[in-house]
Predict the 3D structure of the following.
Amino acid sequence: MRASNHLIGVLNFLTFLLSIPILGGGIWLSTRANNTDCLKFLQWPLIIIGVSIMVVSLAGFAGACYRNTFLMWMYLFAMFFIIAALLGFIIFAYVVTDKGSGRTVPDRAYSDYYLQDYSGWLAERVADNSYWAKIGSCIRDSKVCSKMARTIGGVPETADMFALRKLNPIESGCCKPPTDCGAVYVNETYWTGGPAGQGTNPDCSKWNNDQTQLCYTCDSCKAGVLASLRKSWRKVSVINIVVLIILVIVYVIGCAAFRNNRRIDNDEPYGEARMTKSQPSMIQI
């Protein structure tokens, strides 16, 4: 067990490095929110967990290398709650992104998104009018819709070309009217009215060719945001699961190192010598 101190030191250094992807995942989620004040509830849990793992890993590294029992005890105590928090976040992320996906559209490469396909805490939060005002501002300020414009040989793309584009959920939900509205394509963000389907989808009346409005108030835009968040959270959760498994392994070895430090502090012998000391033989040679 004497080697456990060196092993836990190495593993804690690796854990320190592994905290970087978690911290990076939180920062990446914040960039998905276009660096504004909305959707920050997505990034802060991961950033806090990432920073905590960094600090605790350094404490565990010092405790193992210098055989400091107090630091090792604090390391194990804090790491237990970090593992529990990370596990809880992973479960939470999968639960709130469990339902919902885009609907395929005939003769289109992109999908349409409908708010009724999503449910749960995240859907309710995004759909809340007061909160959506901030999210809609994020999308509008990012100018994601204006970036959709394409030209082929100096000529704007046609409706047939646009139908072959694989739009991301934000582009499909916020930058064009839903397909079932029957609107006629003029360019990527300008559509003329079509009576077919109007009245069956409330978003048809919300669409506006004003480039500052478009479909930012549509339920399809909210559904597109939810689809984008679902994809982002699932990617980050894969990294978190790998890190969680490694943290559990490090925690188990840390417990062994902690027991090892206590034996050294108490001047307890190892192996067979320890058994001889605690239960000496009746026959002395």
Notes: Residues 27 and 43 are 6 Å apart (CA to CA). Residues 33-37, 272-278, 281-285 have pLDDT under 50 and may be disordered. The first helix runs from residue 3 to 32. The longest strand covers residues 184-187.
